[in-house]
Amino acid sequence: MRDAFVVDAIRTPVGKRGGGLSGVHPADLGGFVMATLVEATGIDPVRVGDVIFGCLNTMGAQAGNVARTAWLSAGLPENVPGVTIDRRCGSSQQTIDFAVQGVAAGVHELVIAGGVEVMSLVPIGSPAAVGAERGMGEQFGSAGWVSRYGSQPVTQFRAAELIAEKWDITREQMESLALDSHRRAITAWDEGRFDREVVPYGDLARDEGPRRETSLAKMATLEPLSEGGRVTAAVSSQISDAAAAVLIASEAAVREFGLTPRARIRATAVVGSDPVMMLTGPIPATREVLRRAGLSVSDVTCSR
Question: What is the distance of C-alpha 101 from the center of its chain?
């Protein structure tokens, strides 16, 4: 198989619910990062073999293959196809896997991967909720599903509680990690570490999520999401609006367009895991990608 390279990666700032990107149409936001990436790398957009974008809640403004509508909304060539991927929280990561596979197999020379979601406009779970309200059936209502998993709630909030219980992770430990995450993000912004990848959109030039003023004392005042639970809003991912795009290229394309790769993709992996305790998937996925790459955890000096 051929090598696949990451040439460049850019993103918008991450807006919070009702924040600086909440009024932007998803196709315009996605098209913005696509066009910016094309301009930054200097490639001929006609030569892009495919545009693969992740988006979970594909209804309303995000319906109808938003990868394609975003590309066209940016004024980019009509000959380039686009496809939208839904692998839940791993959707955009999956687009990179598919892009790498296309390049490695010799099907494509250039692929743009990435994702877009405007959760302020299309709330999480909208397709399932609206479908149920309109009599289209329940997401987890099939006879086979109920026979296998019962009628228990299937949510990230419950999964987080189950994980905390299984590994005996205390609320205090989670909040300490959350606070450290905020501080690291703020430090990275202050030191200009995001300057290369983040492109301002309109008046928004910086992520709205990291909270400079937060503290363990403030976190301790929040009520758990479930009675007697450990998980609070302080340790939960926020409702966000953003888009990102990555250019994946073959070695031949790197030479032809005079590109400077930032990384070579050595291995990829995707696995299934318990759908109720859904957030544990990265554990076996990490083991599998290390196995495929011929590495161990101790060989990895930097991870994100």
Answer: 19
